[in-house]
Each structure stands twice: as C-alpha cells, then as structure tokens.
Amino acid sequence: MEVKSRAVHALSLHFFFLSLMAVFTTTTSTETDIACLKSIKASLQDPFNYLKTSWNFQINTEGFICRFAGVECWHPDENKVLNLRLSDMGLKGNFPEGLRNCTSLTGLDLSNNRFQGPIPFDIDKILPFLTSLDLSSNNFSGEIPSTIANCSRLNVLKLDHNHLKGQIPPELGFLDRIKQFSVANNYLSGPVPNFSNNASVSADSYANNKRLCGGPLRRCRKRTTKWKWRFDNSFNGGFAIGYVVFSVSTVVLYASYCVPWVHSGKGNDMITIPAMVLLMLKKKMKKYADFDQFASLSTLEFLLEKEVSNSENFVTRMRFGDLLKATENFSRDNIIGLGETGTIYKATLPNGWYLAVKKFSNSQNSEEEFITELKILGRLRHNNIIPLIGFCKESRKRLLVYNYAHNGNLSDWLHSADGKKKDALKWPLRMKIAVGLARGLAWLHHCCDFRVAHLNVSSRSILLDMNFEAKLSNFGMATLVNPNEMNDSSRGFVMDMEFWEQCFLKEDVVNFGVVLLELITGKKGSSINLAGGETFDIIDEQLVGEGHEDEMFECIRIAYKCVQPFPEQRPTMLDVYTRISNIRDTFLH
Q1: What are phi and psi of 327, to 5 degrees?
Q2: Within 522-588, where are the H helices?
Q3: Mean of all residue pLDDT scores within the chain
Q4: Taking CA 525 as the corner, what is the angle to CA 523 and CA 528, rounded to the nearest 5 degrees?
Q5: Residue 109 DSSP code
C-alpha cells in the first residue's frame, strides 16, 4: 500500500513538472514570437501599409497575432507562429533577422516583394524547423548559403527570379524530403545538385541560368587542364567560325556563277546576290521548320499553345468534365455574369466550396482574351486582384476558373433596382472599396518588375468578397511592359515607354476617378459637374447627414485630379493610393 502511494505521488509530481515546463515554454514562445513580428515590422519598408494597418500590437490578448495579415498560428488562441505568408505586399528591405525569434516557424513565404541583400549564411540557425521556404521574385543577391542543407525538413525551396550568383551548393542534394525546388532566372553557374531522393527536378527549375550544367541540363564539360580547356574552346570556336564563313562563301559563289539572275516580278528589277543567299537560307530553314509541332498552327494558335505550356507552372489545368459537373452542365440557374466574350457560372465543388467559371464563346476576340488573362492574371497574386486558379483547354473549349466573389460586382450594389442593396453600402464600406481598388491598381502599376495596365476598370469589373474587399477582375484587355528591357541608349524606346505610361497607365487613373465618383454620387458614368468643388448636390442623398462629408469632399478632389483631360495632369496610382489611404486613416482617428 505504501509502495502504491509512493508511486502515485511520484507520478503526480512528474505530471506537475511536465505541466510547469509546458506553461514556461508556451509563455516564452509567446513572448519571443511577438518580439519576432515587432522586429519584422520595424525592419521593413511597407509602402502599401499592409503591416501598418493589420499588425496592431496594442491589443495584446492571447492569440491576437493570429489575426494579423499573413500570420498563421499553431492554435488560433495561442501567440505561436506556425507560418508567415507575406507574399505580394510590396515589402522592401533585407532578410528580416528578427525571424530568429519565431522559434516554432515551419513555413516562410516572402515571394513577390522587393527584398534585397544576401540570404543569411546562418539561415539554418535562424529557422531550424523550416519545411517550406519561398524567397522567389525578389532582389536577393550573393551566393546560396550551403547551410540551407541543414534545414533537413525542407519540402519546398523556391529561390527563383532573384540575382543570386555562384554555384548551387551540392549539399542541397541531401535534402531528402524536397518536393519542389526552383532556382530559375538567376546568374548561377556550375553543376546542379544530385538529389539523393530522386526528386523530380526538371530543367524548368534551372531555366535562364546560362552557365548551369548536369542533371536534366546539358552535360558538364570535363576540364582536365587549363591550357587544354582554352585550346578546346578556341579550336571549337575557330572551327565554327570557319565553317560558317566557308558555307556562306560557297553559297555566294554558287549564286554568282551558277544561278541565273531572277526577275522579282516588278519591272526589270532583279534579285541581288545577298537576296538570293537569304532566299536559299530561308528555304533551308523552312525545311527544318516543317518538323516543328507548331509549324502548321496560326499565330494565335501558336501563342495559345505557348501560353498554356507556360501557365501550367502558375495555375492548375482542369478537366472539362469536372467543370461540367460542378456547374450542373452549365445550367442557366448557375449563370452569375454575362459578357461579350463569354458567360460566367457558379461552380460547386464536392467539398461545398464555390468557384466562378468563365466559359468563352468561339470567336477570335474570345481567344485573344483567353490568352491575355492566362498570361497576365495567371501570374498575379494580390489581395485586391481576383486570383485565377485554373484553366481548361480541350478541343475548342476555353474556360478560366477564379475564386468566387460572394457579393458579386460593385455595379450591382450601386445601381441595382433593389434599393436595399444600395442602402447597405454605407460610406465607410464605400471608402474601404475605393482604398482596396487604389491599392490593387498601384501594385499593378508600380510594384513588380513588369507593369500592368488594366484598361477596363469599371464598377462592373470590381468584385466584392464576403468581407466587401475589392477584387479587380476582367483582365481581357490588359497589357504589360517590362521596364527591365528598356535600353537607355535607345531614345526611341524610351519615348515609347513614356508614351505607354502616359496613355495606358493614366487611362487606369481616369477610370479609377470615374469609379470613385460613382461611389460618392451613386450615379453611373462621369457626367458630373465637378467645377463647383464642395457641394452637397453631387453626393448620394443616402450618404448625406451621416457625418462623413469632409472625407467625401477630399475624395471628390482626388477624383477631379484623376479625370483631367491630359495624361500629364493626372497623378500616378501610387500618389492616388497614398492620398486616399491617408484620408481614411485621418478620419478613422
């Protein structure tokens, strides 16, 4: 009996110490995780105020950080960070060293921002438990630290679209859990890792690194001695140049002495020797082109095949049969939108989730819009842009699949015959929509390596989710340009760039001004006399008397600037977003 009593006592004491340790660990983890997020916020530039508006540390209740934008916790009522997903926020700065205080972090996504500088050499000490690391589409430079290989739990490692150089550490091949790996679009050289788990890493994972070799790429050159390597290269180069010169000379001589002069069909003009050479070479090339799988396709079909192939890296390819079932054979009851190039249906998945499926009609305009949306929207991820999550191309069938916006489009709320919908759209909600739209357009115009002009901004192209967050859609007319391709020595192209900015980007500014006026007036179009400035006559009568008139007058001034007749008189979307978000913040406090 005494032995049993001692055993129970010992067991109770054991559980007491375990409980005490759990409490101590949780408290410590909570404090360090909060310090981690505070440090990250303090160390980064946040031009679009994502962290400023969402990461509010004054609340200080259990689990409060779990409601921050981009923060996922182990448990919603515990301040213990599991994943940080800060993608597409326009954040600037170096790799946040404060992450070392997020002691339980397993996933980090900093993709599509403007981070710079090196990846920390001691990243394995900063984030020892990582299973997923995505630093893609930033400006990170320097070499890839070999210590990443010490993060042995990694399943996903994405470092593509940066400015990394040097060799890929061969130690990465020992990451035996790796499922996704990409270092494409950098300045890397040397042999690629040999992954020990036979992970399926394709050539696309290494694309646009001209000096990489091995694995799925070309075989690495064996360099026995330095002088022999130089000799081989110089010999091969000389042989290639000599061969080309000899071939061209032969063709020219043949054309000069053996080929009779040929009339061009326009008067007595004759084809010259250089023209004959080009004609012969062109025929030779055409012979080989006949073997190309796209040789018989039209230009539009070729572009479609190329874009479908590229887009499979960004969005999911879906089967027509599955979409047919989800829309109940594209039932009329599921139609949620009609457009010039197609019909949008509500689709229901077996798990009860909703999607929006756009089924394109069979026309050239529809084909062009399908290609444009697939090319542009498929690569864009932002909180104020409707995400394209899938596509279908089977035979003549063309479909795009988006997230479902539960509250439809803004136009139906502002101009519906149902007065109750408009009544529900109070000014704070309208202001939230305006700020969200401005943020999305500013991101399109200023944030990324490429700029996108939407060219079809209207109240109908603005969708609203269940929280009335604005989601810009209808990218069928959008166009993009990559400023990295600008050649400063070519004044002609710079002039084209200036023209593009003035005529296309500023077109979006005008259309934003029109939407802002619709939010203020409740009326369609821009046929509103703004010359009077501050007047109650143009404000929606349902908004008058709610105490927001000063805020609305400030927004009228912004709209007035946006709809100026000449592009150079209009502000940029970044200026517009900065002003309108400042107005909201001022009147909120």
Answers
A1: -100, 10
A2: 549-562, 573-588
A3: 77
A4: 75
A5: E
In 10 A of CB 303, how many CB atoms? 17
Task: Please spell the DSSP secondary structure of 481-546, one letter per residue.
Answer: E-GGG--TT-HHHHHHHHHHIIIIIHHHHHHHHHHHHHHHH--SSS----TT-S-GGGS-TTTTTS
| Res. 544 pLDDT band, cuts 50 70 90 | confident
Count Cα atoms within 13 angstroms, Cβ side, for 39.
Answer: 15
What digits encode the pLDDT tens for the residues 431-462?
Answer: 999 999 999 999 998 876 678 899 999 999 99
Distances (CA, A) of 580 to 58, 308, 486, 555, 573: 25, 38, 31, 7, 10
pLDDT score recorded for residue 579: 93
Per DSSP, what are the bridge partners of residue 453? 479
Q: Quick one: angle between helices 364-376 and 299-311, nearest 10?
A: 30
Q: Quick one: DSSP state of residue 218? A: P
Question: What's the CA gap between 136 and 114, in Å, rounded?
Answer: 10
Question: CB burial class (10 A; 0-12, 13-18, 19+) of residue 88?
Answer: buried
Side-chain-facing half-sphere of 93: CA atoms under 13 Å = 16
- Please answer whether residues 89 and 111 qualify as being in contact, where contact means their C-beta atoms are separated by less than 8 angstroms: no
Query: b or e along 182-199 (b: 16 or more beta carbons within 10 Å of the residue's beta carbon)?
Result: bbbbbebeeebbebeeeb
Neighbours of 10 (CB within 10 A): 10
Q: At what angle do helices 226-257 and 273-289 cross, to 10 degrees?
A: 120
- Check: CB of residue 558 under 8 Å from CB of residue 579: yes
The DSSP line for 76-107 is TTS--EEEEE-TTS--EEE--GGGGG-TT--E
Encoded amino acid at 331, one letter? S
Q: Using alpha carbons only, what angle is made at residue 402 by residues 449 and 180, rounded to the nearest 5 degrees?
A: 60
Which tokens hold the place of 536?
A: 């109650």
Is residue 186 within 8 Å of residue 165, measured between CB atoms? yes
Structure confidence at residue 305 as a pLDDT band (50, 70, 90)? low
pLDDT tens for each residue of 507-532? 999 999 999 999 999 888 645 555 54
Provide Rg for the chain, Cα atoms. Answer: 30
The alpha carbon of 252 is separated from its chain's Cα centroid by a whole number of angstroms, namely 51
Place of tokens 């696309």: 204
